[in-house]
Structure prediction request, 239 residues.
Amino acid sequence: LEEKAGALRDQYSKESHWAIKAEIIRQLLKEDDNSVWIQDNLKGADVRIRRVVLEEAKNIQPYTALFLHSLNDKSYRNISTALRRIVREDHPRAVRAFNATKEVHGQNHNVRLMYLELALEEQEKNANTTIEATEIVFDMNPVKEIRNYTSNLYEFRTRTSAMEIVKRHPGDLVNDQVIVNMLEAVSSPNRRLAGPAKSTLSYLSEMSGYKSQIQNAFDRSDLSDLQKKIIKESGMITD
Prediction:
């Protein structure tokens, strides 16, 4: 195994194409004994090569230094992945990860939404005394922010990402305004927005209590007649 690893490391140093180098790292990841060499060689590497470790390492502990380094990565996707895995899999370092990323929004707010969902999960842990949680104090309200990202103040990628979080945490996030935001999205001519919005509402309508809440929010909303017509035609609302 050591002989094979040595050959792979030599090949990595000679190779110039990022995809081939990434595949070499993928092979080296199979043995934690290679973690020191990987971390020494990847900090300045192409972001796509580092991403192999961030997304595919089965155990992040041998790669702690690289994960912490990646909280300031050039790639927002890498930052989001490093943040998520540190908080969920290396919780003693969660405070450090949150502090390093609290001002980062990313592309289509991808890092911010990850930060907010993780912050919400921390609050859920602290509310459940049976789950051990590090006391982390947040200077914002993750529920309010996530709800806001479902609105038409934001482009469709941000909105659909926020809706996915709503789907995972309905008890914390669903209220009449969030429902109306998603109903408005259903009426959008942008299928990449309307489709996920309808999917999320359909998912919620299968859960106890939400179907009537969706109907009542629709009835009380100030959606236009045209929007209401489109929403009804989508099958989300019945007369």
